[in-house]
């Protein structure tokens, strides 16, 4: 197989082959890698005077450049995405949490196994605030906030392998 300089390969072993380097964002001297620099430039980093960087695919998935129909436009070297996300209230679908209650007079003095009901009061009868079955819904503002605002994983299932870039090989010509 012919190898093109700057070609990225995926390997099932943990080291880069000879004349390849891990795609780990290393800073490279231009003076020792002029041909590779002429292909990559500072797309992935470096100062463009003395150094340039190799792509860093650690914890990242490659994404094709350009814009497909109905898709966003992606530029070479663009980095985006995050491993975890904390949803804001404004990002959640509008919803409510209903509190089921009874409009009948309470028959129980304990909340265990019961629902909130009208309070009955008389001089002979103690106050009862709970009934056996719900037949109404309380005002949605009767329920407080829930959730802890903690981030959750935002990763697709993955298998970690070794991305490496060819430091030497055939210099690719343009069509």
TrEMBL record:
<dbReference type="Pfam" id="PF07484">
    <property type="entry name" value="Collar"/>
</dbReference>
<dbReference type="InterPro" id="IPR037053">
    <property type="entry name" value="Phage_tail_collar_dom_sf"/>
</dbReference>
<feature type="domain" description="Phage tail collar">
    <location>
        <begin position="6"/>
        <end position="62"/>
    </location>
</feature>
<dbReference type="InterPro" id="IPR011083">
    <property type="entry name" value="Phage_tail_collar_dom"/>
</dbReference>
<protein>
    <submittedName>
        <fullName>Phage tail protein</fullName>
    </submittedName>
</protein>
């Amino acid at each position: 197989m012919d190898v093109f300089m700057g070609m990225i390969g995926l390997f099932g072993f943990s080291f880069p082959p000879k004349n390849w380097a891990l795609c780990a964002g290393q800073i490279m001297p231009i003076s020792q890698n002029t041909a590779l620099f002429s292909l990559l430039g500072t797309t992935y980093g470096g100062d463009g005077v003395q150094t340039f960087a190799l792509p860093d695919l650690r914890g990242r998935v490659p994404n094709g450049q350009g814009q497909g129909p109905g898709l966003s436009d992606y530029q070479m070297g663009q980095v985006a995405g995050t491993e975890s996300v904390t949803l804001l209230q404004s990002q959640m679908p509008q919803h409510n949490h209903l509190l089921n209650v009874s409009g009948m007079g309470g028959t129980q003095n304990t909340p265990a196994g019961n629902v909130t009901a009208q309070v009955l009061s008389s001089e002979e009868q103690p106050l009862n605030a709970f009934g056996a079955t719900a037949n109404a819904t309380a005002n949605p503002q009767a329920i407080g906030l829930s959730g802890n605002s903690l981030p959750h994983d935002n990763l697709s299932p993955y298998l970690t392998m070794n991305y490496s870039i060819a430091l030497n090989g055939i210099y690719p010509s343009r069509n």
